[in-house]
Amino acid sequence: MKYTLTCFLAILLLGGINAFGQQKLDYVALDDADTSLTPIQTAFNDKLTNVKVIGLGEATHGDKTTYGFNFNMVRYLVGQQGFRILFLEGPNSVFVPLNDFIKNDSAYTIAQIDTLVNRKIPPGPDRDQQMVTLLKWMKDYNLAHPSQKVKLMGMSLDLVPLPYMVNTYIKPYDPAGADALIKEWKTANYNHLDMWNDLFNWQDTHQQLIESLDNKVKQSLLSDFSNDKLTLEFYMDAWYIHKQNGVYITDFGMVVHPNNFYWKLQSNPDYKKKGKANRNAQLSATRDSLMAVCVMQGTGSLKSIVWAHDSHVIKPGDSTSLLMGDYLNRALGKQYFTVLTDYSQGGSIRAFRETMSIRESPHAQVGHPTVRELKEKYGMDEGIVFSTELLKRGFGNAGIHGAGIEGSFFINELPLTSFDALAVLKTLYPTDLIQ
Q: Quick one: which of 40, 203, 357, 421 has the fewest CB in 10 Å?
């Protein structure tokens, strides 16, 4: 009897240990509605000592929940960890006037920020009250810390403006051609795609002139022309083009003439290839590499925050990977730290219609692989967990959400070394657009 009782107790104890091991998870609880920095401080205070660049991922653009968490991270990283640059996923030309605003020492009103955001940020989910809140906080911080000001920069592909291109590269060497272009551009219904098409046609028909230029000028010209063409190609690939009444038009309603390079792109045979040889994959890889260059050059000796989609900030460690986070990881090693976000309960976001206007979109896609397992095994609805803890719990890979407004996809079979922390949020709420 004694032996039987001892065995029973041992089995019960082992069973309890096993159950305890299955249920206990070391994580920091979150609450979507909590604006305090206590959970973030608890999670990260001893983790960022040697970090120079931190990647803040977002599972989707266009929701207040993810924005709120990353905004709190910015408050913490700038205010308590000495980070001085915030990179956002957009062209730097968009953020230059916003950066000028937050860095000057003048007084301001909220209405001024509303106007600035509405005028300077293109239509999209960033033209919202959440951006106004971020700019207000950065402005107030800089006014209170004049010797430790934080800077705002864009890191995505940028267009060299048309006036600059014409006045710098065409007018000095072909004044008649420049005047003819400017005159033609004043024609009714002439759109920007037509203008850029004229610019590239000028380049194609003036190769001899370009070759005769001073080498420094020629290289600068070729670089800026190439940059504009690459940028336009990338964004055009992301847009929708369709035929209506025999005319090809873009999402923005601009007519695309058959001789426009935009339309010519569609016949590129690389689009039909699969894998990384596909034209879209090539452009995406180029964009990520250029974003990494922007971050590294802009960071310099300071510490910076990179706020972008999860799919940009991850660091897969795959030698064939061409993601921004992987480039940063190769350059910085342990000085690059990533925090991904995902959500457990779904909700609504701001998303593009086919006409590129913004609407509220149901986005109740729950059950992302890792989030589901954290809920089912450990009862974690929302919270911050580190990849080292997931590794202890037997997770081999992770499956998280990768995008939002442009379309949904999941990043499956993501090695745990691809990120350092995962913040699981709960319900998504759409951003508040500026009307």
A: 357
Name the token pair of 249: 């038009």
The Cα–Cα gap between 169 and 388 comes to 53
Q: What local confidence, expressed as pLDDT, does residue 165 receive?
A: 94
Residue with tokens 């090693």: 333
Tens digits of residue pLDDT in 306-336: 999 998 999 976 656 678 999 999 999 999 9
The pLDDT of residue 404 is: 54
The b-or-e profile of 406-420 (16+ CB within 10 A means b, else e) is eebebbeebebebbb
pLDDT of residue 346: 78
Closest Cα partner for 343 from 69, 113, 35?
69
Bridging pattern class, strands 241-244 and 247-250: antiparallel
Report whether pLDDT(13) > 70. no
Q: Which domains does the chain have, with CATH numbers?
A: 30-156+282-425 (3.40.1660.10), 162-239 (no CATH)
**221/202 Cα distance (integer angstroms):** 12
Q: Are 342 and 424 in contact (CB under 8 A)?
A: yes
Give per-residue pLDDT as tens, 169-199. 999 999 999 999 999 999 887 888 889 989 9
- The residues near 267 (Cβ < 8 Å, ≥ 6 apart) are none
More confident residue, 353 or 32: 32
What per-residue confidence (pLDDT) applies to 241?
Answer: 66
